[in-house]
Amino acid sequence: MSPTIYTIILSSLATGTIITMTSFHWLMAWIGLELNTLAIIPIISTLHHPRSTEAATKYFLTQAAASAMILFSSMINAWNMGTWDITQMSYAPSNILLSLALALKLGLAPAHFWLPEVLQGSTLSTAFIIATWQKLAPMSLIYMTMNNLPSMILLMLGLTSSASGGWSGLNQTQTRKIMAYSSIAHLGWMAMIASIMSNIMIMNLVVYLMMTTALFTSLIGSKSKKIKDTATTWTTSPTLAIIMMLTLLSLGGLPPLTGFLPKWLILEELIMQNLAPMATAMAMSALLSLFFYLRLTYTTTLTLPPNTLQMKFKW
């Protein structure tokens, strides 16, 4: 793809997100989401490979379905309440439909099956865009409609996402799929706190974006597509291997590191709201995610060939 076209597509992607984040009318928000989807499709399918074409098709179908559901829910709300204002979503059926549509758009469980497949079919840099930038527009819609979304549905979506992100990630050897399941689990934490305290959700989103950016940059730099590729990162750059280890542990949420802060605040807030069983379940599901982060950390920095050589050298 020529740099000019790539620049135009990336600026369209940014414009779509910004339109959604700054609009108060549902039609404008929908236009932003559609622009966003249409801009990322050529980026996913640049490889001219059956896997990337399949990923682009899957992404397009799920996002188009989710956008249509969002438009439908806002139309129902406008029909019954006479307003297209995003902050005035007060009709209960349209709120339920909207929360399910946003779950499909973000990749929250049980509507998460498209996300690992799409990330696996894309390049590492495209997967990075999908896992970070593409989450901004739906999250801003959640933030704007926060007061009206059914909190029980959000809590259940959060719990199932965190658990299924942890369970499914245990079985993976591809770094892109691991990052997809990591994204699902983190979004689960955000959905969990969304209806209770939106400030913590925003902080969690910012921390997640920073850590995921750091990790994807490390993976792109070391060309690590599988877990076994990470074992030879130290041959390229020992510093990068150490940074990667710290980022992985931070994503897992180990105490002295940044990733622990949002989890701690969310658990504290859940307990204050008398949701101790929910907090316990979330903490347990975080342990599942921690296991596969620790496995990546182990292969990245704690194995030095030729003592425990499970991997091939880069040459």
Automatic annotation (TrEMBL):
One cellular component term from this protein's GO annotations in UniProt: mitochondrial inner membrane
Bilayer topology: Multi-pass membrane protein
Q: What does this protein do?
A: Core subunit of the mitochondrial membrane respiratory chain NADH dehydrogenase (Complex I) which catalyzes electron transfer from NADH through the respiratory chain, using ubiquinone as an electron acceptor. Essential for the catalytic activity and assembly of complex I.
Q: Does the keyword Membrane apply?
A: yes
Q: Which subcellular locations apply to this protein?
A: Mitochondrion inner membrane
> Which lineage do the record's taxonomy fields give for this organism?
Eukaryota, Metazoa, Chordata, Craniata, Vertebrata
| Ranges of residues in domain NADH dehydrogenase subunit 2 C-terminal | 290-315
Reaction catalysed by this enzyme: a ubiquinone + NADH + 5 H(+)(in) = a ubiquinol + NAD(+) + 4 H(+)(out)
Where primarily located? mitochondrion
User: Which Pfam families does this UniProt record tie to the protein?
Assistant: NADH_dehy_S2_C, Proton_antipo_M
What would you give as a GO molecular function for this chain, any one? NADH dehydrogenase (ubiquinone) activity
| E.C. number | 7.1.1.2
GO biological process: one example: mitochondrial electron transport, NADH to ubiquinone
Q: Which family does it belong to?
A: Belongs to the complex I subunit 2 family.
Keyword annotations of the record:
Electron transport, Membrane, Mitochondrion, Mitochondrion inner membrane, NAD, Respiratory chain, Translocase, Transmembrane, Transmembrane helix, Transport, Ubiquinone
Q: Does the keyword ATP-binding apply?
A: no
Provide the NADH:quinone oxidoreductase/Mrp antiporter transmembrane domain boundaries.
25-288
PANTHER family per UniProt = NADH-UBIQUINONE OXIDOREDUCTASE CHAIN 2
Q: Which organism is it from?
A: Anolis cristatellus
Domain of life, per UniProt, equals Eukaryota
- This protein is called NADH-ubiquinone oxidoreductase chain 2
Listed transmembrane segments: 59-76, 96-115, 152-171, 178-196, 202-221, 233-255, 275-294
